[in-house]
Design goal:
Layout: H1 14-34, E1 42-45, E2 52-54, H2 56-71, E3 76-79, H3 87-104, E4 108-115, H4 117-121, E5 128-134, E6 140-147, E7 152-157, E8 162-164, E9 167-169, E10 182-185, H5 191-204, E11 210-212, H6 217-225, E12 231-234, H7 239-251, E13 255-258, E14 276-279, H8 284-293
Parallel strand pairs: 3-4, 10-11, 10-12
Antiparallel strand pairs: 1-2, 4-5, 5-6, 6-7, 7-8, 8-9, 12-14, 13-14
Helix pairs in contact: 1-2, 5-8, 6-7
Length: about 300
């Protein structure tokens, strides 16, 4: 299958280029598979009936792994499909691989082969791969989110900016308060995170321009990075959901933090944290204050 990676990715180095190649390959698989989606495409549910796995997920992960290993055979790879369901298994797998990367002094790739699985199953064209590379010390240094339906390749490398099809992107600096903000959030499958999301949406809906739920964390993070959204928050996500998107936002001039970190102003977002808040930086504290008052952020 020919890759349609833009010839101009911006000043992106080898790690970002491999991330883009891998993400585009998986994105093309998703796009082709979406034309023939049916009830038989779902192989099983994971943590609960709302958390789906399809036949396409492992195919995409295998292709991403193949492309990474062609260039970096000794690098480590943590893919979603190799991990048991549930937040505990996700957190345990991440800790294991981060320790292994540091011990072996190898880079670690974190892969979500198909983010937005429910969208995919229902033929909603918002499902896509997310590929990120971490240094042996655990810093996200490169990442790509590729939207095959729109042929949009979001790629970033630490210190080199964030790029969309070779054009530099930045967060929306024109949105100066929540009242002007197009905000995104998730519709999570877990009971606790669903409860917190309902608290959040009830508090936020009267205070923002509108709220959107697109069903893909990777897509929503990429859209914050390119200025289509002013912010995005979600109560419980895994590392493969946020690693690439978090770097995109940081390199695009935004603020990527977590709900438990006062102010969310870490120099490098800690991908161990599962409760995320991502904004243009301007509305960050205002959004946190609303979520705190709603009881989503524990005081």
């Amino acid at each position: 299958m020919p890759l349609s990676v833009p010839t101009n990715l911006g000043p992106i180095g080898p790690l970002g280029t491999v991330a883009a190649n891998a993400a585009v390959a998986a994105g093309n698989i998703i796009k082709d598979a979406s034309k023939e989606i049916s009830s038989t495409s779902v192989t099983k549910t994971k943590a609960n009936p709302r958390d789906l796995l399809t036949k396409t997920d492992p195919i995409c992960e295998a292709e991403i792994t193949r492309i990474i290993k062609e260039t970096y055979p000794s690098h480590l790879i943590l893919g979603e499909e190799a991990v048991a369901s549930g937040p505990e298994a996700s957190a345990s797998a991440l800790d294991h691989y981060l320790k292994l990367a540091k011990k072996t002094n190898e880079h670690l790739w974190i892969v979500d082969p198909l983010d937005g699985t429910t969208n995919f199953v229902h033929s909603i064209p918002m499902s896509l791969p997310s590929v990120a590379c971490l240094s042996p010390d655990g810093e996200v240094v490169a990442g790509c989110v590729y939207d095959g339906e729109r042929e949009e390749c979001f790629v970033a490398e630490v210190g080199k900016g964030a790029w969309l099809n070779g054009v530099r992107i930045e967060v929306d600096k024109g949105t100066e308060n929540l009242g002007e903000c197009v905000l995104a959030m998730g519709s999570p499958p877990g009971a606790e995170s669903l409860s917190m999301s309902l608290l959040g949406i009830n508090a936020l809906m009267p205070k923002v321009r509108t709220i959107r739920m697109f069903g893909s964390a990777a897509l929503m993070l990429a859209w914050v990075a390119c200025g289509r959204l002013g912010g995005y928050w979600e109560y419980d996500l895994s590392s493969w959901d946020v690693a690439a998107g978090g770097l995109l936002i940081k390199e695009a001039g935004g603020n990527m933090g977590d709900l438990e970190d006062e102010g969310g102003k870490r120099e490098v977002f800690d991908i161990r944290k599962r409760k995320i808040i991502a904004t243009n930086g301007i509305v960050h504290e205002e959004l946190r204050d609303v979520l705190k008052d709603a009881g989503v952020i524990k005081q």
